[in-house]
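Forum > Structural Biology > Help requests

Title: Can anyone predict the 3D structure of Endonuclease NucS?

Hi all, first post here. I have the sequence for Endonuclease NucS but no way to get a structure on my laptop. I'd be grateful if someone could post the structure tokens.
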Amino acid sequence: MPLEFGLWRVDDKPVRVATRPMPLESRLEELIEADPEILGRPLLLIGRQVQTDHGKVVDLLGMDAEGGLHVLELKRDRTPREVVAQLLDYGSWVQELTNEQVREIYATYARSRDLAEELDEAFALRFGGNVPEALNSTHALTVVASEIDAATERIITYLASGYGVPVNVLFFRYFEDEGHSYLARTWLLDDAEDVAPSPGKKGRGKQEPWNGTDWYVSFGDESGHRNWEDALRYGFVSAGGGDWFCRTLRSLPVGARVFTHIPKAGYVGVGMVSGEPKPFEEAALTVDGESRRMADLPLKGSYRASDGTADEEGGEDRREWIVPVDWEQAVPRERALWRTGFFANQNSACKLRARFTIEEVSRHFGIG
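Reply #1:
Sure, ran it for you. Structure tokens for Endonuclease NucS below:
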């Protein structure tokens, strides 16, 4: 049984606040949309009255901080069999949604509500991080009700506890006191496993597609060991100081397009990798049409590891690795571009799938 709420006003002597039937249970949908915090768990609302492929309409669709989807369905006046069957039908639909379809659902919702933020921005504002590369890897199903009957409780408990179906009931109580209205909430199953994998077609389409060309590069210049002015002038990106830092950079193929980001500053350049990675001591760059050893150039950064070379005994390679780049467009550090929702992580290089970042940085730098 769900926890039963009682509410008392204690300005003077305790006075119990009367529980009332919810005037319009459908108003819960409006209240949740206005403030999803009512649900008691962080969610970003991405759809309302969402049309499924089966001709049905999902009341509310939300997303959690891990990119999992949450179907919220109001019980209204339907029978237990109707509401549970509907919710399970929605579960069969939602588990098949691809990354692209999830983004389309949010875009439709944003347009209908005149929201300026794209999904990546809205996600970052809500959760303080980047949209996961894989969306809809899990899903949860929730009946939203002001009251439930014994049959609904039995069915939900049977499915969740006996068979691990990610279904639960969010149960509201409505109170009135001297012209004021209050809501209290609880879950039917506090310890239920409330998310389940959304494999769909063996996981295909959950991850945002990669175009096979674009890479993210982090150019950390805060230590002074490397300097963006050098990279901007001579055309390169670099990383080093340990295997973890240089391994991903060394995977950049010739012809890759790199979106270069300076941590705590923003995106400063987009260019094409024009040569194989080399340690600083062996690297050569093209300057005024002539190939020159990088070590012979006038540089602001040192680009030398503390021990100068790779560990001869098979330890970590602490050398600085250089990758030549022909800049399509690049700017000084003080003109770096940053927007809420842009992709950034601690890898020196990785495949860039974040469409919002690619499109906005390309647009800003005038790149097709």
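Helices lie at 27-34, 80-94, 99-112, 119-127, 150-163, 228-234, 243-247, 355-365. The chain has two domains: 8-195, 214-365.
Shout if anything looks off.
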